[in-house]
Amino acid sequence: MKLYIDPGTGSMLVTVLIGIAGAAVYSLRTRIMNMKTKIGGGKVVDTESVPFAVFSDNKRYFDVFAPILREMDQRERSVLYLTASEDDPVFSCGLAHVTAEYIGPGNRVFTRLNNLKATVLLSTTPGLDVYQWKRSPGVAWYVHIPHAASEVILYRMFGIDYYDAILLSGKYQERDVRELEELRGLPAKDIRIVGIPYMDEMAARLKREGPAPEHERTVLLAPSWGKSALFGVYGSKIIEVLLATGYHLIIRPHPHSFIVEKDMIESLMAAYPESDRIEWNRDRDNFNVLRRSDILVSDFSGVIFEFTLIYDKPVIYTDPDFDLAPYDAWWLKDKTLWTATALPRLGRELTEENMTDLKLLIDECIEDTRFAAGRQDVKAETWGHVSCGAALAADYLCETCDALLSGKEDEQ
User: Fold this and answer.
1) What kind and span of H or E run contains 98?
2) CATH number of the domain residue 129 falls in
3) Burial letters for 367-397: b for 16+ Cβ neighbours within 10 Å, e otherwise?
């Protein structure tokens, strides 16, 4: 009798085995690094514990933390901000109670984090206690906050399993996390629905500055990266078709594309140089480019929800052929992603068949009122506590830290 394993299960098992092997290798490497540090008098020092710490693995996530940092600063709560980017905006944020520390590059990040002493640590980085980044004995409570208004189950497998708490924005996210915990026999995380602080801030900024001045109809092409993303599927064809509409075109590749798809992006930029019809955008702050655009063409990028829910504008999206096997979503009984139910309410799907009619799709999405109603429905599902996110997140962090410190005092 032959044992049969279906492709999805096989792929999942391979991922699990790779994860276990990777964890063992990185655990050994971390021990070796720590031994070298102790022997060689390196960077790890015996420091006093701080009440709050934040870890950001890239400068582009500063906007996720900034509203919470400002709220904590107003409450005169000291925060240690650890960043893997030497040019992180945190170094010029001017917040009196925020101390910033550059801890990169490479394995120096994990040496610092794995020896950190803090009561509460907040991060948007998945994979705690899976690979190099281990739970430090000196950190009492790890809190995760997502950096997009969509699923938290599209992290690589085990992405949030070993956090103590998670700050969410919608009930469907909580449902998915609870199902994962039950399937894997994990202890229940502390879940608090606080909303989306960085989107609150963008919305407030838009209200202050108002809509963009009158301009010609403008299309923003903002794909994610990888073989399932827009450029991976359609290449230069999507640019050609968009230029044929006669509308002004802004192309804003994902920042990671300039790293992992550098040759492709440079080739496209050379083939379609900037002109009065086309511009390439790499602004760190995407506020103005989103405000100037009338419609977004994208795939599965998180910018879709920023564009539609903050700026109240439609999208044209692709339906990527996702292999869920490496992701947490694979474990769920119902593998229908919430995003898949949301996108048809926000705009039209782009396919190989209707691409030649892209101008008609663009005009329909902008002028059809049903998409405006759909945006309100999606917003209600994924953006709870609008305008209150930073305050609610800070409430949770402060309450948790105070309770943990109080409990420690009672034990003494």
Assistant:
1) strand 98-102
2) 3.40.50
3) eeeebeebbeebbebbbbbeeebbbbbbebb
Which contiguous run of DSSP H or E holds residue 381? helix 369-382
Identify whether residues 53 and 130 lie together within a single domain.
Answer: yes
Give the structural domain span for 344. Answer: 210-382
Q: Which residue ranges of the chain lie beneath pLDDT 50?
A: 1-12, 14-15, 18-19, 21-30, 32-46
Number of structural domains found in the chain: 2
Q: What is the pLDDT of residue 43?
A: 46
pLDDT in tens, 387-396: 999 999 999 9
Q: What pLDDT score does 367 carry?
A: 92
DSSP type of residue 150: S
Question: Chain-wide mean pLDDT for the chain?
Answer: 89
DSSP 47: -
Q: Is the domain of 391 the same as that of 358? A: no
Residue 55 and residue 118: Cα distance in Å, rounded? Answer: 12
Whole-angstrom distance, CA of residue 295 vs CA of residue 334: 31
Over residues 286-306, the pLDDT tens digits come to: 999 999 999 999 987 889 999
Residue 226 confidence (pLDDT): 86
Is 10 within the bounds of a domain?
no
- Same-domain check for residues 165 and 192: yes
Whether residue 5 lies inside any domain: the answer is no
Helix (H, G, I), strand (E, B) or coil at 209: helix
Q: Which residue shows structure tokens 């800070």? A: 394
3-state secondary structure of 368: coil
Q: What is the CA radius of gyration of the chain?
A: 23
Decide if 20 is inside a domain.
no
Contact 326, 339 (CB under 8 A): no
* Assigned token pair, 241: 């078709």
Q: Are 270 and 375 within one domain?
A: yes
